[in-house]
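FAQ

Q: What does a record look like?
A: Structure on top, sequence underneath. For example:
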């Protein structure tokens, strides 16, 4: 098991280092700062408030989103504090992230998890927007790596956590 985890970490560091050292990184990081902010949580709060204002508390759509967050956030916090994987800045010598992360550990990516959870739920209710929503969520995950606060597998597990909690919530509430 340790060998497998070491191999994954080695691949993660290789992919991360390649991306950070790409010539386009400087330009890309400016775009990713703005993009990453769309996954900070204010957009989700706005969607919840709009749903409450337009459909009321009895809205199944609202219930799915609230149930998903009630489920996803504790799982995310338990995983993050259980695995205690250092962020790239703490794990790699002479590396500085573009932004300062809000907490100490990197695994899984909460931004990616929440983005994919919301994209899945919104895509269920508005299927014509599913592909653009998933593209946005994927860009959130990518931006977190570009900004130097996550390794690629942090975002991959964030995708799995977000989609699975969304699907579970849709199946449970509806």
């Amino acid at each position: 098991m340790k060998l497998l985890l070491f191999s994954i970490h080695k691949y993660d560091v290789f992919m991360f280092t390649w991306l950070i050292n790409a010539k386009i990184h400087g330009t890309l990081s400016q775009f990713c700062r703005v993009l990453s902010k769309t996954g900070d949580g204010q957009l989700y709060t706005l969607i919840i408030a709009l749903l409450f204002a337009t459909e009321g508390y009895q809205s199944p759509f609202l219930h799915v989103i609230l149930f998903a967050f009630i489920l996803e956030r504790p799982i995310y916090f338990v995983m993050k504090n259980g695995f205690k994987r250092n962020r790239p800045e703490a794990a790699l010598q002479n590396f500085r992230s573009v932004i300062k992360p809000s907490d100490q550990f990197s695994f899984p990516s909460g931004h990616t998890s929440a983005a994919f959870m919301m994209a899945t739920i919104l895509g269920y209710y508005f299927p014509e927007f599913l592909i653009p929503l998933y593209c946005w969520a994927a860009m959130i995950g990518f931006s977190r790596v570009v900004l130097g606060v996550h390794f690629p597998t942090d975002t991959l597990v964030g995708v799995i956590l977000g989609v699975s909690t969304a699907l579970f919530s849709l199946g449970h509430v509806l």
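Q: Is there anything notable about this one?
A: Helices lie at 2-20, 25-37, 42-55, 60-83, 88-91, 110-125, 130-146, 152-173.
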